[in-house]
Design goal:
7-stranded parallel beta sheet, binds NADP nicotinamide-adenine-dinucleotide phosphate, alpha/beta, 13% strand
């Protein structure tokens, strides 16, 4: 059997996790799963009230609300996280927005805001987190991208491009940080029923609940995968389609998306 790309996480008991984008959807469900499994978790996002409600039943949950688009907020947030946890085993960067956009309805303000939140804020976070993890000499960082980053898709003119950027960025992170002893995970979800997708007016194949998504993410960490993608069949199919010759790929996507 081939060795896992990251060290498998064999127990969550005592693991210290910083979860960014934890106030709803996948992040909130992942927080619940990690806390139930025995981890200590700092929950971050802008909405402090939601974070506090999720954290309330758990003695090992802490709340550090902040806006990830504010560069100066990151070092302060890291300092608060360290006050709570003392050490960081894993950071999950999941804050994002999705503005459905076609090629003929480009809104520049949305494009700027999406890239600023979905991509630039990841760099903001990495610029403070990576030096800290390197100084610790251990720990891991995971980015939540999307299977929509595999190939151009209708309505995903902005969102898909931000997620493709994260996929590329995460590969470079793995190349550079794995040899230095850090774990790097690329999380590529398919459709998950969350506030982000609640306005979608088209069929969402393989739609998962946030709890199912959280379980898939936990399994990926436990197995030491680099890419954690789900649901299996739909994500594999889209990955396969993305590797087909252009003519075939576009024809298949036109046919399957009806666009
Ligand atoms: N749902 C899907 O089908 C799907 C598919 C593929 C990938 N994903 C990815 O999965 C991740 C979670 O998405 P979700 O579906 O769970 O959506 P969601 O429920 O809308 O969660 C988005 C999270 O990002 C946080 N956030 C947004 N702007 C922020 C800011 N400026 N500063 C700090 N936090 C901010 C939100 O919290 P506040 O509003 O409280 O700040 C919220 O916790 C995202 O990266 C998304 O792109 C989702």
């Amino acid at each position: 059997m081939m060795k896992a790309l990251n060290p498998p996480i064999t127990t969550w008991t005592g693991k210290r996790v910083w979860l960014i984008g934890a106030s709803s959807g996948i992040g909130a469900a992942l927080a619940e799963s990690l806390l139930t499994a025995g981890a200590s978790v700092v929950l971050s996002a802008r909405r402090a009230e939601q974070l506090t409600t999720i954290a309330a039943p758990h003695s090992t949950a802490y709340v550090v609300p902040f806006d990830v688009t504010e560069t100066e907020a990151w070092p302060l947030a890291l300092a608060q996280v360290l006050e709570h946890l003392g050490h960081i085993d894993l950071v999950v960067l999941g804050a994002a927005r999705y503005d459905p956009t076609h090629s003929w309805t480009i809104d520049l303000e949305q494009a700027e805001k999406s890239f600023d939140l979905n991509v630039v804020s990841v760099y903001r976070g990495l610029s403070v987190i990576v030096p800290h993890l390197l100084e610790q000499g251990c720990g891991g960082v995971s980015l939540i991208a999307s299977i929509s980053g595999y190939t151009g898709l209708p309505r995903a003119l902005i969102y898909g491009a931000t997620k493709a950027a994260l996929q590329n960025l995460c590969e470079t992170l793995y190349f550079e940080l794995a040899p230095k002893g850090l774990a790097v995970y690329l999380i590529n979800p398919g459709f998950v029923q969350t506030p982000m997708t609640s306005g979608n007016d088209f069929p969402m194949p393989g739609l998962l609940t946030p709890q199912q998504a959280a379980q898939a993410i936990m399994r990926g960490f436990e197995r030491g995968h680099f890419e954690i993608r789900f649901p299996k069949a739909f994500s594999f199919t889209l990955r396969l389609i993305s590797m087909l010759p252009d003519r075939l790929r576009f024809a298949l996507l036109h046919q399957t998306t009806g666009m």
